[in-house]
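Sanity check

After download, print the first record. It should look like this:
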Amino acid sequence: MIRDLQIEIQFLKNGRKSDTSSTPGSQDYGRSNKYNLREKSSRTSGGQVGHKGSSLKMVEKPDETQKYFPGYCKQCGGEFNADTVFEMHQRKQEVVIPPIKARFIEHQSYRCTCSKCNTQTTTDLPSHLKANIQYGGNIQALITYLSVIQYMPSNNSNPDSTAFDGNMITYSLQKWVGLDLGVPRNINRIRIAPRNAHNGIVPGDNYQLHYWNNGWVPAKIKQAGYHFIKFEDIPSNTLYWLRNLDHGKEEQPFYYKNGKQVFSNQPGS
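Expected structure tokens:
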């Protein structure tokens, strides 16, 4: 009795449950494992009579038929002649898709400078383009068709896969993710990118740095070659504003304090 009360107090103090910790659901406090609340039924386990199942079905008229005839007797080795009568023993079908050649479509936006007011105007790319290179919507539709209509299992069903896909736009909603390297390896660096709306420095994107001098003063436009970009001949000890001319729209002015970048919306900035 005392032991049971001590365990109960320990559970209440720690508040550990299966949905907030690694504690198994069977050990949740207040859960009863002694009785099954489901009423007994006279039905047998498994699929019930009359239940309509759903699976991949064969077609009556396939697009192509390949026939396989035996050429000799498996017992004596004698060859079959033209008078031999064959009957169909078994048939199976497979669903195939004709060879597909990928088409690469490049979307290009252009900008120009107004000769009257010196304002630069840039056209926007289609909103569905989130990365420099991505798959089109018809490929996503094909994957859905194979999964939903043809019941093809996906080998890429790991919910953590977005954490390692190399795409700065995607992100994982898992509380914990892990990476199995397959074999022992030496790791000297791990790079983690925070969740963002394409507001980092992206190779191939064009950027323009503005600095404050009684107003925003634009610097030269540069294209990023990596995940950082360097501007020269820029005044120090002032406010800066880096604009992505291709994608990101949630920019924030920033300055440097003790060698660290501080954004204007950060607490204490």
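If your output differs, re-run the checksum step. Summary of this record's structure: Residues 27 and 216 are 61 Å apart (CA to CA).
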